[in-house]
Design a protein that fits this description.
The protein is mainly alpha-helical. Helix content is about 55%, strand content about 5%. The protein has seven helices and two strands. It has helices at about 25-35, 50-65, 65-75, 80, 85-95, 95-110, 120-135, and strands spanning about 5, 15. Strand 1 (about 5) and strand 2 (about 15) form a beta hairpin. The longest helix is centred in the C-terminal third of the chain and has 17 residues, at about 95-110. It starts with a strand and ends with a helix. About 25% of the residues are buried.
């Protein structure tokens, strides 16, 4: 494929630098995230990005409602296209990877009608889950 374009599970040519709503497919996201292991595979068991998103979304349902729950379910959806990049590596690759990821995530939000939340609720829950997951899954 051309530079910057990947082919998704469904066969869509996804342009990493110039994504569009038409390139976003929920089945592609679900398939990829279910097959990507968090923590670069350095966990005591296979723990997918999809499982992380689903567990977090279940915990958010009661306290925050369906809109925030759906947002958390898709908060790592850009990783379906760029992979799960561990935080230490993300810091080393900034700002390029942050710009790429946020551009893809923005299109995903447009595709599924997820608004921008004024608070950092998703980040707080994500950080809390990180601390818990590391304690449970990292030897």
């Amino acid at each position: 494929m051309a530079d910057g374009i990947i082919q998704t599970h469904s066969g869509i040519a996804f342009d990493l630098r110039n994504p569009s709503v038409e390139m976003i497919d929920l089945d592609d996201i679900a398939h990829a995230l279910a097959n990507i292991c968090r923590y670069n595979g350095h966990s005591s068991r296979f723990y997918s990005v999809a499982e992380h998103c689903a567990v977090g979304a279940m915990h958010m349902a009661g306290a925050h409602g369906r809109t925030v729950q759906r947002a958390f379910l898709l908060h790592d959806a850009a990783e379906a296209y760029i992979g799960d990049i561990c935080r230490p590596l993300k810091y080393l690759l900034e700002p390029a990877i942050k710009d790429l990821e946020s551009g893809i995530q923005k299109v995903i939000h447009q595709r599924f009608g997820i608004g921008i939340f004024p608070s950092n609720t998703l980040h707080v829950v994500d950080d809390a889950m990180l601390a818990y997951e590391v304690g449970q899954l990292i030897p």
